[in-house]
Protein 1
Amino acid sequence: MGSLAFALDLIATFAFAVVGARIAINRNMDYAGIILIALVASLTGGTLRNIFLGIAPSWLDQYQYFLAVIIAVIFALLAPSKKTVGLFILSIDTFGLAVAVVSGTQFALEKNAPFYSAALLGITTAVAGGLLRDVLCQVEPILLHRETIATSSALGALTFLTLDALALATSMCAIAAGAVVIAVRALSIRFDLNLPRAK
């Protein structure tokens, strides 16, 4: 894995683990449950991405992923409020979403995945952990009903791929794609925007 993709993966791992741990705390889980949910929330997306690419999950031989999760769990436990996720945690989750989209898409491109596959793998990296986290915590999955998480991830992945095809520097592609993810999700939360629902 390239150094940029690895760094982004670790940042996303920490962010998703913090959110997973806080939700587990809010569900009154014990310490084992909190750690398990943090691991699931933070590692599922990257694991599925690698499996689909025919590569062993990165955490099998890189301890830094587990270190990031443990630090995130400690951070979540020591945070002042344990009753609500709060704006700060929501901001961390949004930032993690943006970073995961970028890292997943870039990693897929490094493995010579075609355009559409790289986009799908970028989205998978970003949303799979949160979906499984909510299922295990027995809460309605956010992915399926609000905040346009999948939509913002898709737009971010497409932004990265389009700019990369135009031969822009990888760092510029990453910044632009991350900004799109954050902007779309922030606007959807601020103005309560969602995709149309079936009647």
Note: DSSP finds seven helices and no strands in the chain.
Protein 2
Amino acid sequence: MGILEAIILGIIQGLTEFLPVSSSGHLEIAKAIFGDQQEEGLLMTVTLHAATALSTIVVFRKDITQILTGLLSFKMNEEMMFSLKIIVSMIPAAFIGLFFEDQIDALFEGNILLVGSMLLVTGALLFLADRAKNTDKKVGLKEALIIGISQAIAILPGISRSGATISTSVMLGIDRERAARFSFLMVVPLILGKMAKDLMDGEFSGDSLELMPLGAGFIAAFITGLAACTWMIALVKKSKLSWFSLYCFLAGIIVIIWSLT
């Protein structure tokens, strides 16, 4: 993989991780166009996800600091309750990842027809969420579990993780800004956990992708991720999800036609 291709993939990941259009789906489409080998694609995908996880940490550094401070106080305060909700939301995706890893990996082998179909599902979710009433409701433990189930379903390439979780939150009546904040924070532990598991399992021991493309992709994903994360929060507050819904419908139709021809 060349540096230019890595930068393009990084920009795609940085934008689509936070914008509700499916980062996994767009990366699969891009890798299919570039014709990357599976091993190189896996290492690059993990690197790019690490970059967007870091950008999330930077954007929400104050929230994360408050959460960690609350946890270290060992008191049942607001920060501790928020941490419990994050843990609850992680359970469905962690369960799927641990017990169905091989089946999940099989979905990321150039199945472009699946990507196109799931983009249509993402478009439908965004369309419904944009018409939900805005309230000031907070995320509870029950809502956290339901949002977590949406996150688990969003493992499918083409279903936007942020789109699915934010849409689910909004349709549950959660305040839009809180929905976006919870959606972005809940994925960080999962990404870091997945990276740690892959490293311990030796998943990348045989990979030979050069450091320059990895570094270029990481930087591109991190910078675009910072901008997209901040932009997405503002868009959710203004109920501007319908444009992304339209994009997902159009992209899904194009990808399905492409895969069939």
Note: The chain has a mean pLDDT of 83.
Protein 3
Amino acid sequence: MDDIERPLSVSALTALVKELLEGSLPSVLVEGEISNCRPASSGHLYFTLKDRGATLQAVMFRYRSKALSFEPADGVLVRARGNITVYAARGQYQLLVERLERAGEGDILALLEERKRAFAAEGLFDESRKRALPRFPSRVAVVTSPTGAAIRDILNVLGRRNAGMDVVILPTAVQGEDAAAQIARQIEAANRMSLGDVIIVGRGGGSLEDLLPFSDELVVRAIAASRIPVISAVGHEIDWALSDFAADLRAPTPSAAAELVSESRAALKREVSQFVAELETVIRSRLDRARLLVGRFEASAVEARLMRVFMPVARRFDEAREELVRGMSAAIEARERRLELASRDLAAMSPAAVLARGFAVVRAASGLAADGGETGSGAIRDASVLAPGEELEITFSRGAALAKTLEVRK
């Protein structure tokens, strides 16, 4: 009863609650809606998980949040795996999130990981299969929706950077049940009819489920079998599909894919001008060098040049040798000092040195160690183990003596 009535400090009670919660709930899986999502400048992610009946504070540190496959936002339904912790400064419990995924996406991700392992085992993602893109393709085949934002972005970029490039649009659905088969057929058609020097396969952003056709086996195998280099441009930068791994190159967005296949005309003009300037500089430099060399074959000039080259090297060698000798000497002296100090310490701590300072070792004459003795040595360290009349052996720095106990003082 006294323990219950004894007051606890706020810190002590909070520590008790922290111990109970964190000990009983080491790992939990929570489903709820994100609310009050606040990404910090440090990269940490602070948010609230809520449902109709309750709210739960949550935090996800930067090294985990930067690996998310989606952008957390208010109203998104998620599943969070993590540990319950207590934030003592505010007296509240919170979820320390280790993994975060959209609710319902866990099964899809598991399916994609299984497919990814299977395709990788077949070698469909091997780097040895990847081919370099042609730098100046004259025609680009684009497999995407003819009405989506992706094709508009691609055409805008190509028109701005290289208006003379031909673009062949192979229309297809980019989501839904028939999308995968249509995408695969258009890739095969582009190869069969040689419709481009490069193929761009992609679409704009969407949910993980929307992007599933680009992870379908038909699409992955069609990309892997393509004899024309393929760029996969699916979704935004954080989105991904298995087509990214099978393609020769992955572009973070459809616009980026268009930039990869189109050299800017202004950039090409600047590059050519730079090459011309560099070539002129090199030619003038070599001509000037040749003029100088023609007049520099006299014996004195050759000797002077050789000495200018040799002397700095010889000086650096001498300095390095002297520095090495000094370093080795200093190292030897330091180790000699350490050895001398260690020898002194060893001599000072030896039993003979201790006895020489006036101390003695007392043993029972029988040679048996008592309770106060050191096992195996017979030395007496506690007077309570002795009895009057007991014989003792006292060892000094030089010699020993036998004695008998007259009285024991505790």
Note: The CA atoms of residues 19 and 86 lie 9 Å apart.
